[in-house]
C-alpha cells in the first residue's frame, strides 16, 4: 500500500526576546472611557517579563493614539494598562491599524488584528477555566470529608484536562499564527497546562509551522531552546517507558456518533491501531481486508481502533457508514495536527501498530494481510 507523507508533528517553547525598533509602525487608536487626561502605560513582553516602553496621555474625551515600531517579520506582544490594570492585550505586526474601545474596569473591544483576536479568544477560554479551577481549589481548601476531597480533586483534574484540549485545539487550529505561542504557556497558578514531557512534540510542531512564516522572529528562535530541553527529556522517558513496557499513549476521540472512544478502554486485548485517510482509495481497500481478520478474531479478543487524519468529519463519517466498518473508527477533525499524530510520531499514512495483550507494540506497518493474520493469531 502506498504511503502518503504528512507533516511531522508538534513543537514550541519558551522565552521571549524583544526586537529593536527597525521596522514599520503599528498604529493604535483608542478610547478609554472615564479616564480623561490621564496616563496609559504601554508595555512589551521581553523574555519572561513585561517592560514599560512608552506612556501616552488621553485627551479630555479619554482618546489616545500610540505608534510603535514593529520589525518586519517579527510580530510583538504589547499590553496597555491604566492604574495598574491591563485593559488591552495585543499582537502587533508592521502597519497594523488597531482600534480599541475600553473602560477603566478592564473591558475592551479591539478591532483590526486577526492575531490579537485569536489571542484574546484563547485568553477568554482560559480565563473561564481558570475561574472554575480556582473556585474548586477554594472549596478543596476547606473540605473535610474524604468523599468531598476526592470529588473536588476529580473535578479539578477534569477542568485541567478540558483546558488542555481547548489549548491544543486553539494552537493546532492556528499553527501559523504567532498568537499560538501564548497558548502554549498558559498555566493554573504554578501548574503549566503543557507540563508533560511529551508536550515538547506539540511545541515543536507549532515552532516548525511558525518558522515558515516568521523565520526572523525572536520568539520562534527562543522556542527552540525549550524544545531541545523537552525533547531530551522525552527521549529519556521514552527509553524508560519502553524498558518498563508500560501501556501505550492514550487516544480519546469521537466516533461517527460523537461518542468519545478511549484506546485505553481496549487494554488487555490484542489491538490493531490503524491511522488512515478516507481520501486514499487503497486505505479503503485495506479496510475491506481488515473486515475478514476482524470477523475471524474479534470473538477471541481482537480489537481495531482506527484513527482518521482527515479534516472533513462529515465526509469521513459518510465513508465509515458506507463501508459498514464494524470496529472503533474515530476522527477529531484536526488532521495532521491531531494530538494522536504526536503521541505516536506518525510521519506517514497508512501507519499500523499491533499491540499484544500486555499493551506492548509487537509489530508495525504490516499491510500484507496474510502476515497480519498470522501475527494476530500468534498473540491470541
Structure described in brief:
With 380 residues, the chain is of the alpha+beta class. It has 9 helices and 19 strands. 36% of the residues are buried.
Describe this structure as you would to a colleague:
Helices cover 39% and strands 27% of the residues. A hairpin with a 5-residue loop joins strand 12 and strand 13. The protein is elongated. It has helices at residues 114-142, 146-173, 180-183, 199-213, 218-244, 281-297, 313-323, 339-343, 369-379, and strands at 4-5, 24-33, 39-46, 49-57, 63-70, 76-82, 85-92, 97-103, 108-111, 187-188, 191-192, 252-254, 260-262, 270-276, 302-308, 328-330, 348-349, 351-355, 361-364. It has nine helices and 19 strands. The two termini are 26 Å apart. The longest helix has 29 residues, at 114-142. The protein has three domains: 24-112, Immunoglobulin-like (Sandwich); 117-242, no CATH class; 252-379, Glutaredoxin (3-Layer(aba) Sandwich), CATH 3.40.30.10. The protein is α+β, with helices and mostly antiparallel strands and 380 residues long. Strands 16-15-14-18-19 form a five-stranded mixed β-sheet, covered by helices on one side. The chain has a four-stranded mixed β-sheet with strand order 5-2-8-9, covered by helices on one side. A four-stranded antiparallel β-sheet has the order 4-3-6-7.
